[in-house]
Amino acid sequence: MYMNPSQHPGHQGSQVLYQAEPDWQHQMMHKRNAIMGAVHPHVGRTIRVTTIDGHTYEGVLVNVDGHHAYLHVTPHAQPYDHHRPIYTPAQFQILTLVLFELLVILLLA
C-alpha cells in the first residue's frame, strides 16, 4: 500500500524532499529485470556498455545479479570514471555497473 512519507507515524513535522511517483517502483523493477534477462545469457562474452550518463565501457561480462552487472576490463584501456567502485587485485579490474543506469549494451564477440 502506498503512503505519503509525511503520513508515516513518527514523522510529524518532517519535510518531504523527494517522493517518487507511486508506480515508479514497479517500472524500475520491470526495467531492471528486463536488462538482467537480456544480459545474463551472455556472461563470459565481451560487451560494450553505455550508461545513462554517457560513459562507455568495454570488457567481459563476468556476472549479473539482481542489481549490478560486473565487467572485467583491461587496465588503462578505457577512460574510467574514478568515482565508480572498482575491485582491483593485481592485474585485473572488475567494474560494477548499476543495471538501471545502463542505456545501451552491445555484444561484441
List the helices and strands and how they pair.
Blueprint: H1 24-39, E1 46-51, E2 56-64, E3 68-73, E4 86-87, E5 93-98, E6 102-107
Antiparallel strand pairs: 1-2, 1-6, 2-3, 3-5, 4-5
Protein model, in words:
The chain has 109 residues and is an alpha+beta fold. The chain has a domain at 45-109. It is 15% helix and 32% strand. The chain is built from 1 helix and 6 strands; from the N terminus they run H-E-E-E-E-E-E. It has one helix at 24-39, and strands spanning 46-51, 56-64, 68-73, 86-87, 93-98, 102-107. Strands 4-5-3-2-1-6 form a 6-stranded antiparallel beta sheet. The N and C termini lie far apart (45 Å). Keywords: Membrane, Transmembrane, Transmembrane helix. This is Acetyl-CoA acetyltransferase. The chain crosses the membrane at residues 90-108. It comes from Paenibacillus chondroitinus.
Write out key terms for the chains shown:
elongated, 109 residues, 6-stranded antiparallel β-sheet
Brief characterization of the structure:
By secondary structure, the chain is an alpha+beta fold. A hairpin with a 4-residue loop joins strand 1 and strand 2 (56-64). The chain has a domain at 45-109.
Strand content: 25-35%
Largest sheet: 6 strands, antiparallel
Mean pLDDT across all amino acids: 80
In sequence order, what are the helices and strands, one letter per element? Answer: HEEEEEE
- Percent in helix: 10-25%
Structural class: alpha+beta
| Low-confidence region ranges | none
Overall geometry: elongated
Number of helices: 1
Q: What Rg, in angstroms, do the CA atoms define?
A: 18 Å
Give the N-to-C terminal Cα separation: 45 Å
Provide the spatial order of strands within the biggest beta sheet: 4-5-3-2-1-6
Number of β-strand runs:
6
